[in-house]
Structure formats: structure tokens, C-alpha cells
Amino acid sequence: MRLATWNVNSIKVRLPQLLEWLATARPDVLCLQELKTEAAKFPRGELEAAGYGSVVSGQKTYNGVAILSRTPLDGVAFDIPGFADEQKRVIAATVQDVRVVCVYCPNGQAVGSDKYEYKLRWFAALGSYLAAELQKQSRLAVAGDFNVAPEDRDVHDPKAWEGQVHVSGPERAAWRALLALGLKDSFRLFEQPEKTFSWWDYRMMAFRRNAGLRIDHILLSEELARSCTSSTVDKAPRKLERPSDHAPAIAEFTSPR
DNA sequence: ATGGCTACGATCCGTAGA
To answer: Using CA atoms, how far apart are residues A55 and A224, in angstroms rounded to an integer?
Structure first.
């Protein structure tokens, strides 16, 4: 199975690029974030015509997540159980024998802000949710925009970013708490090129300078990690006219015999 | 030098992203 995640920063603007990317990259499952639209306006028909079914949790203007799949999506679940939140950031579904959780983690704005406190509370709630999911499903994938660069090697200029939101100690501790549940960062299962990132600021010609962060991740349960054969970032869509500021990440794993 | 884009939904600027 080839599983991908992409923060498209508006499904309406990015639909042509998404259809093109689906045709070339051919993922079996794709987690989408930052749809910025209500579920009723999600382009279900166009994606269906491209061979993908979809489940969607949308809202106007902000957030919004979806899972696309070439094979049936079952057991759809929304949000984080027990965590009161208006923001549409989580959707889960089962594809074949894999439980897929698609996440759009909060940005956090600035260390110490209300949004930062919300981000940390949100991560704690996500951890409880994923711990429960792991009890039920040994084949679990959690893919999305985590808005955390786990280590300094995931940051183009660690000195400049030191202590800032996305790299601060409490955020990285929240990330490590997810790993402590038994989840693996699929990207780090393999030798990787240095300075591989998944997000680049629209300003300051950041993409041309490769001034980015690796904040989009695919976490795998131990059983899935054992059968994972690759995990990469596809920079190609970031090079197009009017791109998303994020690039897709893709992991591939084999099915059990 | 603390900005610099981009998208959205409201107007012709404010909010948010990261």
C-alpha cells in the first residue's frame, strides 16, 4: 500500500494540481489537510471520476481534513473523542486492513500564546486517542501536518529557529510522546538526503533557498513499520505555479502474507 | 530591518498560516 499525506492549503485552488498528482504518484490512500471548505463543497465527484472515494470533515475558511482511497473506506470516525473542539482537524477510516488517522495539528502561532497552549492540549488529547486506537488495531498509520519539526536536522536553520513555535521543547516533547506509544516516524526508518523538508514559506524565496521545515509526517505502528519499504517527500508539486506551501509525503508498505 | 506571500471572506483590510 502506498499512503500519502498533503496539506493542500485550499482544495478549491489546488484541485487541478491534486488530480495531476494523483495521476502521476498513484497513491492508494491520501490524507488531505487544510481543505478550507465545507464538506458539501468538497469536489467528491471529480475525485470519484479520478478513481478515488473520499470521506471529509470540512468547515468554512479554516482547517478541514479528508481521506481519499482507491479501495473502500470503512469505519469513518471524526475528531478526537472526548476532546471538545470546533475545529475540523481529525478524520479516521479503515482501508483494507489498515486504520488510517488523518491529522491537521494546530499551528500554535507563537510560544506562550493561547493558540500554543491549545496546541499542547490538543497533542495530549491526540496521544490518548492514538493509545486507544493502538489497543484496537495493530496496523495503524497516522498521517498529516503535525506542525512540529521533530529534530534540528528537520530545520533549515536551527539557530534561527531555536525556541520558536514548531521546534520548541514542549512541542518536541509532545511529538516524542507519540513515538513513545509505539509509533515510528516512517521517514527516519531509512537513509535520507540531508535537508529534506516538507514546508517552505511563501515569502523570501524560501523554496528556492530550501529554507524549509519537515513538519508533515507519516507515523506507523510497529507492525506497519516492519513492512515499510520507503518513505519520501515529493517536492515536485511545490515547484508548480501557485503551489501549496507544503509538499506531499509518501510511505509504502507491503501487505501481510 | 520583525517585513517579505497566499487564501479566505469580508470589503478595498483583517485574520491565519508556519
So the answer is: 23
* Sheet of A228-233, strands arranged across: A53-57, A65-69, A29-33, A2-7, A249-253, A228-233
pTM: 0.97
The C-alpha atoms of residue A89 and residue A36 are separated, in whole angstroms, by 11
Q: Residue A60, CA: closest nucleotide via C1'? A: B8
As a whole number of angstroms, the distance between CA A75 and CA A64 comes to 19
Q: Which residue's CA shows the smallest distance to C1' of B18?
A: A107
pLDDT in tens, A133-155: 999 999 999 999 999 999 999 99
User: Residue A244: which nucleotide is closest by CA–C1'?
Assistant: B6
Instruction: Point out the residues of A that are catalytic.
Output: 104, 145
CA of A245, C1' of B5: distance in angstroms: 10
Å separating the CA of residue A75 from the C1' of nucleotide B1 = 53
Question: Which triple of cell numbers denotes residue A46?
Answer: 471529480
